[in-house]
From TrEMBL:
<dbReference type="InterPro" id="IPR024078">
    <property type="entry name" value="LmbE-like_dom_sf"/>
</dbReference>
<dbReference type="Pfam" id="PF02585">
    <property type="entry name" value="PIG-L"/>
</dbReference>
<protein>
    <recommendedName>
        <fullName>GlcNAc-PI de-N-acetylase</fullName>
    </recommendedName>
</protein>
<dbReference type="GO" id="GO:0016811">
    <property type="term" value="F:hydrolase activity, acting on carbon-nitrogen (but not peptide) bonds, in linear amides"/>
</dbReference>
<dbReference type="InterPro" id="IPR003737">
    <property type="entry name" value="GlcNAc_PI_deacetylase-related"/>
</dbReference>
């Protein structure tokens, strides 16, 4: 299976779904990233120019991706902090979808969460909205952005499954206990974003425990339904099936997963940290 992860900033995927991505790669799936911005508005060091910060964050994300087994990254280069789900962004995300032709898309939630407000960064909401618009209808519709085909040779593509992370009403949880150390190593690659990196493992343990407990309270946490088959002969009919976790629109059935904030992790043993692989990777690059 080919999977495309679409996020606003470098480190979003590692915080939100790093363990899930590592799990997918270990299962033999091919994962690629699409990043809307270079993250130049991130970090707290005001002695670094924003252009240099963008270069730093690209290097950090590339190293983090390599740890999880991801080697293909698509950078859209939109300005950090001012992302809007306009037609320009929808077109460029649609272009990546048509290029990659994924069987599954994982992106950020377009719904604001008031209980965990930091998960609802405006760039995250805008990226989630634009990505969903790209999945349906833009990427699959030959009449949406016709220049993608005429000028770039990118034929329409229909995405069978769409997974949403950090949504307010999760329907599915992924146990990533075995991938915890890889997730933390990937996160430690984003050195420009961590003021207190020594506290990161404890934070990840705390988040994982909260999410694991939440998953036990969800009756349908492991249910999944989604395919891309014809129904009703192509009539334009919209219905929502909240319990089964997918949205049926028109003659396509589009699957939606909700992954709550970040990967589920059940703590079974004390974490032992070694020198992050990302540091070794960066040393080898120098």
């Amino acid at each position: 299976m080919k999977i495309l992860v679409i996020t606003a900033h470098p480190d979003d995927v590692d915080f939100g779904a790093g363990g899930t991505v590592a799990t997918w790669v270990s299962e033999g799936h091919e994962v690629e990233y699409c990043l809307v911005t270079d993250g130049q508005a991130g970090g707290s060091d005001n002695t670094i120019t924003r252009e240099e910060m963008a270069r730093i964050r690209r290097r950090e994300q590339t190293a983090a991706a390599n740890i999880l087994g991801v080697t293909k990254l698509h950078w859209l280069g939109f300005p950090d902090g001012v992302v809007v789900p306009d037609l320009n962004l929808r077109r460029e995300i649609s272009a990546v979808i048509r290029m990659v032709k994924p069987d599954r898309v994982l992106t950020q939630s377009s719904e604001r969460r008031y209980d965990r407000i930091y998960a609802s960064h405006p760039d995250h909401l805008a990226t989630g909205e634009a990505a969903l618009c790209a999945v349906y209808p833009d990427a699959r519709n030959e009449f949406a952005f016709p220049e993608l085909l005429s000028e770039r040779g990118l034929a329409p593509h229909s995405v069978p499954e769409t997974w949403i992370m950090a949504g307010p009403n999760p329907k599915h949880f992924v146990d990533t206990t075995d991938m915890l150390e890889k997730k933390i190593e990937a996160l430690l690659c984003h050195a420009s974003q961590h003021q207190e990196p020594a506290e990161l493992p404890m934070r990840m343990r705390g988040w994982g425990e909260q999410i694991a407990q939440a998953s036990l309270r969800k009756n349908s946490c492991f249910s999944w339904h989604g395919d891309c088959r014809r129904i009703n002969g192509g009539f334009n009919r919209n219905r929502c099936f909240h319990n089964s976790g997918f949205w049926r629109n028109g003659y396509r059935r589009i699957g939606f997963h909700y992954i709550w904030n970040s990967d589920v992790r059940i703590v079974l043993r004390r974490l032992r940290l070694t020198k992050p692989e990302c540091e070794r990777h960066q040393e080898n690059q120098n």
